[in-house]
Amino acid sequence: DSGVTQTPKHLITATGQRVTLRCSPRSGDLSVYWYQQSLDQGLQFLIQYYNGEERAKGNILERFSAQQFPDLHSELNLSSLELGDSALYFCASSVGLAGDTNEQFFGPGTRLTVL
Amino acid sequence: GENVEQHPSTLSVQEGDSAVIKCTYSDSASNYFPWYKQELGKRPQLIIDIRSNVGEKKDQRIAVTLNKTAKHFSLHITETQPEDSAVYFCAASKGMNSGYSTLTFGKGTMLLVSP
Questions:
Q1: Closest-CA distance of chain B to residue A88, Å
Q2: What confidence score (pLDDT) does residue B94 get?
Q3: Do B102 and A45 touch (CB under 8 A)?
Q4: pLDDT of residue A28
């Protein structure tokens, strides 16, 4: 157990719908990262937050958005869902931006299926 | 941005053999190179990492080497066991000194160890 929690574990929805994925980082970790994992694309970085502020963006679609709240949990919002959005979505956390270690600890993931 | 290439995509070995997975990166400013292991249906977990001020690091049966000039790093697993079967991801980051710790992952190598 990494200490990072994600809910829900599984999500099945229809095209055009909107869903919210939730992540709670490890206690003390200020940085949260979201990744999308599909069979043919590996682990794709989506977005990073540090202490409530967006710090880096990767290959995140405009239909997707995220935020980190004052209690440091984060939510990833996916809207106007398409079949191709079906994937495993991971949240990871790390202590912060700089320091002696940048190890990212991954949560168990949310498997999204769009029908 | 950073681009990480990983080879091979699949690797089959007999138990007891050695396995080598290779990665190349494009951004010479990258200075932190972790390796993650992902078992089927589970989260990625860090197994070893190396920083740019070190050329080699070993942890029991696992070792990682880094060639900064060639922008190339490799994972070596000796005396492989069936429980080593998993997908292995390499990654690169500029996070060690610049305060920017986003990871760019390779596409993964599926390692299959036959008894």
A1: 10
A2: 81
A3: yes
A4: 87
